[in-house]
Specification:
Strand content: 15-25%
Shape: globular
Structural class: alpha+beta
Number of helices: 5
Distance between the termini: 47 Å
Radius of gyration: 14 Å
Strand order of the largest sheet: 3-4-5
Number of domains: 1
Bound molecules: zinc ion
Largest sheet: 3 strands, antiparallel
Length: 142
Amino acid sequence: MNRPVDEPVIYSERYARDTVMPRNGRMCEIQIEGVCRGMAETYQHRKRRGRCSPAERWAPSNGLAICGSGTTGCHGWIHRNPEAARERGWEVSAWDDPARESVWLRNPNILGMELYLLRDDGGLEIAPDDDPKRQNPQGRAV
Ligand SMILES: [Zn+2]
């Protein structure tokens, strides 16, 4: 049976974790220099859980696989630096759609950061050349 087109897909926590955690070979996806612990240890909601619609809560476009906890590693850095995290797309505002907000992630192929849009099937798309986050040098690497 077809779903009505206006009805959003609700992803399960299991699907989100199985899709996001291996997305960068189980390594931390943001790898902040001098902070990162290496392996992806926690699932970070880009839009805080309490601000998510049911459809956003476990959408892989809203998740990052990163190291640390609320106080350690890259996860702790995000919590301590919310404004800088937003400039990089690691956090998104309550009114933003995570699937349309680009994010700087470690690209293992170029050994540097690349600006991506995250798909809910676990795929990464390189963000357009005119994406505003490319114009902000503060938003690149840490
Ligand atoms: Zn890290």
